[in-house]
Amino acid sequence: MPQPKTALVTGAASGIGAAVVAQIVDEQLFDSVIAVDIDPAVVDQYSTAAYEMVMPHMVDISEYAAVQSTVDIAEADGNICAVANCAGVSEPGWLDEITPDRWQRIIDVNLTGAYNVARATCIPMYERGVGTFVTVSSGAGQRGSMSGGVHYSAAKSGQFGLVRGLAKQLSPHIRVNCVVPGLIETPLTTESGLWNEDEIAAFEASLPAQRMGTAEEVADAISFLLGPKSSYITGELLTVDGGAQLS
After folding, report:
1. Is the pLDDT of residue 2 over 80?
2. Which pLDDT does position 142 carry in this prediction?
3. Which of 61, 145, 146, 150 is deepest in the core (most CB within 10 A)?
4. Domain limits for position 107
5. Of these residues, 46, 115, 126, 152, which one is catalytic?
6. Could you tell me what percent of the chain has a pLDDT over 90?
C-alpha cells in the first residue's frame, strides 16, 4: 500500500502560508499537510476538526536541526512530495540602522531558511525520484526595497540563485520554482512597519491592477507550481505583483 502523499508548508500560521494550507485542505491536493511556523499559535490554529489532515509544528526554519527533525517525523508517516516555503521576516531600516546582527537574522530566515528547508526535504524526494519545491521570494529581490532594507532585498534576491541552482542540480526528479509576490495584503505588509496607509495608497495607484494582491491569489500560483499542471516548468520565477514590474 503506497504511503500518503504529504505537503510541507512553512510560514503556515498567517498570510500566504496559511492560504496555501487552506487551499490544500479545501481542494484535497495532498493526503496530509505539515504546517510549520515559528509562531506557537500554529499548533492551536490547526488543531481543529476542519484541519484534521494538518499536522502543525512550531519550528524556526533558520535552525537546520529543527527543520530536519520535523521532516524526519513527517517522513515516518508519509512521503513528502511537495514543499511550499512561505516563511519570511522583514525588519525595515536604513543602512546605518542595520547592524551585523540584524543583517544576519534576515539572511538566516529568508535565505538560509529556504536552503534549510530545501536540503531537508529535497534529498528524500530526489531519492524517491519525484517532488516539487516552491519558495516565496519578493519583488524586493528584483527591484530592491528602500522600505524593507538592503538586508531583505539581498536575502530575497539570493533565493533566485538558490532556486535556479537547485532546479539544475535536482533535475529531472524534482521541479524547483519561485513565486515572487509584489504588494500583498498580509501581516508582513500591513503590520511590519514597512508601509503606512499613505504609502500603500500611492503604490496601489501606480499599479496596473490598482490594488494590493491577496494571499489567496499568491497561493493559487504556488498550488499551480506544486501540482501536475506545471509539469514542464522548473527554474521559473513566477511574478504575482499586479503589474508592478511594468512600472
Report:
1. no
2. 86
3. 61
4. 5-241
5. 152
6. 74
Query: Is 152 labeled as catalytic in the residue annotation?
Result: yes
Q: If DSSP states are collapsed to H, E and C, what string results for the chain? A: CCCCEEEEEECCCCHHHHHHHHHHHHHCCCCEEEEEECCCHHHHHCCCHHHCCEEEEECCCCCHHHHHHHHHHHHHHCEEEEEEECCCCCCCCCHHHCCHHHHHHHHHHHHHHHHHHHHHHHHHHHHHCCEEEEEECCHHHHHCCCCCCHHHHHHHHHHHHHHHHHHHHCCCCEEEEEEEECCEECHHHHCCCCCCHHHHHHHHHHCCCCCCEEHHHHHHHHHHHHCHHHCCCCCCEEEECCCHHHC
- pLDDT given for residue 80 in this prediction: 97
In a domain, 247, yes or no: no
Q: Tell me whether residue 78 is in a domain.
A: yes
Grid coordinates standing for 40?
Answer: 506557537
Decide if 66 is inside a domain: yes
The residue type of 23 is Q
Quick one: pLDDT band at residue 148, thresholds 50, 70, 90?
confident
CATH number for position 210: 3.40.50.720
Specify the number of domains making up the chain: 1
Closest CA to 189 of 12, 39, 36, 14: 14
What's the mean pLDDT when you consider all of the chain? 92
In this prediction, residue 91 has a pLDDT band, given cuts at 50, 70 and 90, of confident
200 within some domain: yes
